[in-house]
Amino acid sequence: MIVDGVEVLVEGEGPPVVMVHGWPDTHRLWDATVTALKDRYRCIRFTLPGFDLSREGRAYSLDEVIETIRRIVAATAPDAKVTLLLHDWGCFFGYQFAMRHPQLVDRVIGVDIGDAGSGRHRAEMGRKSQLMVLAYQMWLALAWRIGGGIGTAMARWMARTMRCPTDPQGIGAQMGYPYALRWLGVAGGLKGLKTFSPVGPMLYLYGERKPFMFHSRAWVERLAVRPSSRALGLPTGHWVMVARPREFNDAVRTWLAETEK
Predict the structure, then answer these.
(1) Among the CATH numbers 3.40.50.20, 3.40.50.1820, 1.20.1250.20, 1.20.1050.10, which is that of 2-119+192-258?
(2) For the whole model, what pTM was predicted?
(3) Angle, CA 39 vertex, CA 37 and CA 45 arms, to 5°
(4) What digits encode the pLDDT tens for the residues 77-105?
C-alpha cells in the first residue's frame, strides 16, 4: 500500500498498532516485533518520509510528517483507534501526532524518549550531558546540510560512535533532517510544539545503560501513578528492541493484552 508517497506494510489482524521508527532506521527496525505481535494485532509500519535512501531526500516539515502519519492511520485503521509504538524521532513525531489527533489514538508505547528537553530533564542531565547531546545532534544536522558522500560518511561515523545496530549501508545523510529542523530551522523548524501528555494508557520502555537518559525521573514517576500505565527499564542502550528483543516484545505483548478494552 502506498500512502502519501510512502510504502506502508500491514501484517496481521486485530487491534491496529502503528509503528514509527527514528534515526537512522527504517521500518525494518520492527521486524522482530511484528513477528511477535501479528498473530493478535494488525501491525502497521512504514519508513519515515525522507529516510528511504532509494528516494531523493529533503527536509520534511513537522506538519508534513504528522499529516503523513494521519493519512496512514486513516487508510489502515479507518474504524478504530490505534496504538502507537514509537522510538527515537518516532516518539517525537508520534507524541505530537497524539496531541493533535487524540481522537485517533487509544494507547501509546514510547521507547527511550520521554520528556526529553523539558526543564526537569535538562536539570537532571547536567551541563556535560547537555553538551554531548548538542554535539551529536549538531553533527547530524551538519551532515544533512553537507549531504552527498561526505555527509553520509559523517552520519555513518556518528552511528558507529553511538553503537547503532543499523546496517551502515542503510544510513545516509538525508536521514538527519529532523536534527536540521531542530538546530538549523529548516522547513519551518519545530514551531508550534505541544507538550506531550498521554491521553490514554501508556507504556514506556527505556534502556538503562546509556551515558544519559532521555527522560526525567518525574516522567517515570508520573507514569507509575497513571491508570494502566507503567515504565520499565531494561539493561540495554538506546535500541532496546534490538538488544533485548525477547524481553521487549514480551513486555509489549503483555501490556497490550492487559490494557485491551
Answers:
(1) 3.40.50.1820
(2) 0.97
(3) 50
(4) 999 999 999 999 999 999 999 999 999 99
